[in-house]
Amino acid sequence: MTERQILRVGEETFVSSESVCEPLATVFEDDSETGYFYALDLRQEERIVAAVHIYTVENVTDRHRDSEVEIFWPADGWK
Predict the structure, then answer these.
(1) Residue 74's closest CA among 24, 40, 5?
(2) pLDDT band (50, 70, 90) for residue 39
(3) Is the pTM of this model over 0.85?
(4) How many CB atoms sit inside 10 A of residue 18's CB?
(5) How far apart are the first and last CA of the chain?
(6) Which of the four pLDDT bands, split at 50, 70 and 90, describes residue 1?
(7) Burial, 50: exposed, middle or buried (Cβ in 10 Å; 0-12, 13-18, 19+)?
(8) How far apart are CA 20 and CA 69, in angstroms?
(9) Is residue 19 within 8 Å of 76, Cβ to Cβ?
(10) How many of the other CB atoms lie within 10 Å of CB of 14?
């Protein structure tokens, strides 16, 4: 399964994708200040199991250009 979305860095964006092996999911979020990618386990009370800082908006020199977020799950749904 693949989820794609065009975004402009610094504009609020939320892209999520659930694995075929529920209860796993991922989220990319731009909150207008930073971009983060989260790995989630939907069974747990504290759902975020990992977070990766992708960018700080003020440091992205070409933020005026469109970018693409792509979340891809392989067939086994575990990566």
Answers:
(1) 24
(2) very high
(3) yes
(4) 17
(5) 11
(6) low
(7) exposed
(8) 19
(9) no
(10) 12
Helix (H) or strand (E) holding 51: strand 48-56
Higher pLDDT, 20 or 66: 66
For the segment 56-67, the average pLDDT, to the nearest whole number, is 96
CB atoms within 10 A of CB 29: 17
What are residue 15's DSSP bridge partners? 28
Tokens 């005026």, residue?
64
Contact in structure between 67 and 6 (CB atoms under 8 Å): yes
pLDDT for the residue numbered 48: 96
> Within its chain, how far is the Cα of 14 from the centroid?
7
Please count the residues of the chain: 79
SS3 call for 58: helix
